[in-house]
Amino acid sequence: MGIPPLIVNTEDPSGVIQPRLVRNAGQNLQVTAGRYLYWGEPDTEFGGIDIPGLRLAEAPADRAYLWTSWFF
């Protein structure tokens, strides 16, 4: 496994890390699992921002994925 991609905003303490794990489950089968993990205070790039004129905020959600690839 290598170093996971890491994106950090140098102007404020916010960022995202994207760890993943890739495994060969067979000769023609590959399984990939990963996450997107965001952090930051409100009003930062990755922490979320308020939407002007509304009492709402927009922020990225942590998420996970699982891919199965079959090669033939």
Describe this structure as you would to a colleague.
The structure is a single chain. This protein has one domain (6-70). The strands form two sheets. Strands 1, 2, 3, 4 and 7 form a five-stranded antiparallel beta sheet that branches. The chain has a two-stranded antiparallel sheet with strand order 5-6. The chain is an all-beta fold. The chain contains no helices and seven strands. It starts with 5 loop residues before the first strand and ends with a strand. The model has no long low-confidence stretch (mean pLDDT 92). Helices cover 0% and strands 53% of the residues. A hairpin with a 2-residue loop joins strand 3 (20-26) and strand 4.
Map the helices and strands.
Layout: E1 6-9, E2 14-17, E3 20-26, E4 29-39, E5 49-50, E6 57-58, E7 63-70
Antiparallel strand pairs: 1-2, 2-4, 3-4, 4-7, 5-6
